[in-house]
């Protein structure tokens, strides 16, 4: 798409500001770094050999398998909606790092939860930040891009930072669950992403009830908004409360035809 600036007037008497097309990422954005052919082949062999037997395995079995079979370093992606993965990784994958996508749009409670995770667990917490601050993004792409083009906003503040910060790792641990949404109903516990990295989802067979029970049983750090009607938490501008009994993810991008940020679909 063209890099020709778009001109928009933000108010009476204000000067027209040249805006960049949202499909054009900020300068310095790096393309995802694929693994070497040797690493990709090794990871693919693991998926081909073990994906079926791990499909319905327990979280402990999946993480112990990863600790035993995966060469190279793994990273645990944490949204801070809950801290289940941090607890599991601290027990069964102690050599892993934690990674948090610090988008600039999080609820204060999400940032406080991240600070508590960093204090409680020994693993290094990597805070992946976008190229632009929220203010810089407003100036370049227009005020509140999340309200006009949420897919572009997610790309620049989640998908692209994850790709860049993923470079040192041979695979990542996700909190995907099959009962999250119909799109995730057949999610494997062990997969490979388009850059050759392993994608391991140890709680993929859990329900929301299983997750909450584990949090309570093990006295985990609790994101306070999960107790206030927010069962699925993303960036503050794009997350709404959910009525009791409704789809837990219905509060995400509630006014848009959008159910995924792109981390697991791009």
Summarize the structure.
This protein has helices at 37-54, 59-69, 84-92, 108-120, 134-141, 145-148, 150-165, 208-217, and strands at residues 6-8, 17-19, 74-77, 97-101, 125-128, 171-173, 190-192, 198-200. The chain has 266 residues and is α/β, with parallel strands linked by helices. Strands 5-4-3-6-8-7 form a six-stranded mixed sheet. A two-stranded antiparallel ribbon has the order 1-2.
Describe this structure in words.
- This protein has 266 residues and is an alpha/beta fold.
- Helix content is 33%, strand content 11%.
- It contains eight helices and eight strands, in the order ββααβαβαβαααβββα.
- The model is unreliable at 1-15 (pLDDT under 50).
């Amino acid at each position: 798409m063209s890099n020709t600036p778009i001109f928009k007037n933000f108010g009476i008497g204000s000067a027209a500001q040249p805006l960049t097309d949202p499909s054009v990422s900020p300068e310095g954005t790096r393309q995802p770094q694929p693994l070497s052919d040797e690493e990709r082949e090794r990871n693919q062999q693991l998926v081909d050999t073990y994906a079926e037997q791990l499909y319905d395995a327990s979280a402990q079995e999946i993480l112990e398998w990863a600790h035993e079979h995966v060469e190279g370093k793994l990273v645990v992606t944490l949204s801070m909606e809950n801290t289940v993965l941090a607890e599991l990784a601290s027990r069964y994958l102690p050599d892993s790092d934690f990674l948090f996508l610090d988008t600039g749009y999080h609820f204060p409670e999400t940032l406080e939860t991240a600070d508590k995770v960093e204090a409680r667990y020994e693993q290094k917490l990597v805070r992946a930040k976008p190229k632009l601050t929220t203010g810089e993004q407003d100036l370049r792409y227009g005020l509140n891009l999340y309200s006009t083009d949420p897919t572009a906003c997610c790309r620049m503040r989640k998908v692209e930072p994850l790709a860049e910060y993923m470079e040192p790792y041979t695979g990542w641990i996700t909190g995907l669950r099959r009962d999250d949404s119909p799109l995730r109903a057949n999610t494997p516990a062990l997969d490979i992403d388009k850059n050759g990295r392993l994608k391991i989802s140890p709680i993929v067979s859990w329900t929301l009830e299983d997750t909450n029970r584990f949090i309570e049983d093990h006295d985990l750090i609790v994101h306070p908004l999960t107790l206030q009607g927010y069962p699925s938490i993303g960036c503050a501008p794009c997350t709404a409360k959910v009525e009791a009994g409704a789809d837990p993810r219905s509060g995400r991008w509630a006014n848009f035809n959008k159910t995924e940020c792109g981390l697991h679909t791009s």
